Amino acid sequence: KAGVTQTPRYLIKTRGQQVTLSCSPISGHRSVSWYQQTPGQGLQFLFEYFSETQRNKGNFPGRFSGRQFSNSRSEMNVSTLELGDSALYLCASSGRDRGAADTQYFGPGTRLTVL
Amino acid sequence: GNSVTQMEGPVTLSEEAFLTINCTYTATGYPSLFWYVQYPGEGLQLLLKATKADDKGSNKGFEATYRKETTSFHLEKGSVQVSDSAVYFCALSLTSGTYKYIFGTGTRLKVLA
Q: Could you tell me if A31 and A93 are in contact, meaning their C-beta atoms sit under 8 angstroms apart?
């Protein structure tokens, strides 16, 4: 079974631009979560999507948004980039259904650098 | 609230030494517990998991036992190798209420030859 894939792997943008990151979950997984990882703040939860609906959201400003498509692929968008948005963005998928906990499997991440 | 606390790093060991990375949790309900490993430049990989009290997860020589009485899930390995150098994350997932995965801050392990 193919793992979680994320594209692109590396991205360089300048302040004020916007960026879209893509995540393809493991086949059959319907839940996709996004995380931001930085040296200072560690691993922080952004949001989770399940069946095209956002079900959980972390404490990030509205500049961070996401969506999920009918094939479970997900995108996250960051508008008006700031220097502090430089981070590794990780996507994780799980096969969990409503009310059940399941294991999250992570992709390799997208390394975003904002100049 | 729900949280995961793991020991501060970095942890530096010589090859073949015994490893323990402490992890304790606070959670309402009955969480599942996980250890993930992150090698440089990569995403997180699931190392092992346990879903109920007294379960022991094991993989690649690593072990951790779900201790409900001490709310702990310490990671151990009898003999570390240089290739085990990485960052280790303890995490829990909640089985009731709003689904959430909560991660510890990570512990960096460096193994010297």
A: yes
